[in-house]
Design goal:
Elements lengths: L19 H26 L9 H7 L7 H13 L3 E3 L5 E3 L4 E8 L5 E4 L7 E3 L12 E7 L8 E9 L4 E8 L3 E6 L8 E4 L10 E9 L8 E10 L5 H10 L7 H9 L11
Antiparallel strand pairs: 1-2, 3-4, 3-6, 4-5, 6-7, 8-9, 8-11, 9-10, 11-12
């Protein structure tokens, strides 16, 4: 199977000088090849004789050249995101059984959370000690734990597949040699450590926008850097700015929206309310 993950696509002649039609066919062929590779990997991992392997071991088994192993890793990542494969505690690849689910983690201020799985009505309760470093809105893979019949499903987070929060808004508190930010989103259960020199000059009481650099672990808090100071928490308009950045709303509207707003009548007529 050497070379099956990184071959240069075969050129397909097009009908015009720009080769638009040929390029379209080429893309479709690549999509089909990718689908076939994923099906082959699934078939291999679900065989009875298969034993969990690390990606490097799988690459050796499939005789994938080193230069093309990035493609193999990308396919494995996609299959994990799709909930078809999983990584165990040692990073080995194995098939995801019916007791493994993929969904969005909703955090709480008290540390526990819930995972909602697309297509399923009931969410999964995650105890505080089983969150495995997941934060609010992360895409996670969860193992369903056996429990009493009739009670809410409970599980533990096996892995965080994709972080849902890259930036957040909060209040800055300065220390002697570092600072930290208390997130406005109370579902983000930990304060953000801000190293010296990454505070952008913020002082205690400033509302700031923080970019997360590291999500920490059981022993250390997440780390970030201040990318924008919104103003002091008591400044006029800072509360509105905080909501805008927290919700990812546009800070300014486009010209067409501004023109329409300017043309709107200032007085509301009774007929408009009917």
């Amino acid at each position: 199977m050497s070379g099956c993950y990184g071959n240069t696509p075969r050129k397909v002649p097009g009908r015009n000088a720009n080769g638009i039609r040929g390029a379209g066919i080429e893309v479709m062929m690549e999509i089909e090849k990718k689908k076939e590779k994923k099906e082959m990997l699934l078939s291999l991992v679900t065989e009875k004789e298969y034993r969990p392997m690390k990606p490097k071991e799988l690459a050796g088994l499939l005789q994938v050249p080193k230069a093309e192993r990035g493609g193999l890793n990308a396919l494995l990542d996609e299959l994990v995101l799709e909930g078809k494969l999983m990584r165990d505690g040692t990073g080995r690849i194995k098939a995801a059984g019916a007791d493994v689910k993929t969904g969005i983690f909703a955090g709480t201020q008290k540390g526990y959370g819930f995972v909602s799985v697309e297509g399923e009505k009931e969410d999964i309760f995650i105890p505080p000690e089983e969150t495995n470093g997941a934060f609010d809105q992360d895409l996670v893979q969860v193992f369903l734990m056996s429990g009493d019949q009739g009670r809410r499903r409970a599980g533990r987070v096996l892995a965080v597949l994709e972080r849902g929060t890259k930036e957040l808004v909060g209040m800055y508190d300065a220390g002697r040699s570092f600072g930290y930010v208390i997130p406005d989103n109370t579902r983000f259960a930990k304060d953000i450590y801000i190293p010296k020199g990454k505070d952008k000059g913020a002082v205690t009481g400033h509302k700031v926008l923080v970019r997360l650099l590291d999500y920490g672990d059981d022993k250390k808090n997440p780390e970030g850097e201040v990318v924008r100071i919104l103003g002091h928490r008591t400044d006029p308009g800072v509360d509105v700015l905080s909501v805008i950045f927290r919700r990812g709303l546009p800070e300014e509207f486009g010209e067409a929206v501004r023109d329409e707003a300017a043309a709107a009548p200032l007085e509301v007529w009774e007929a408009d309310c009917e």
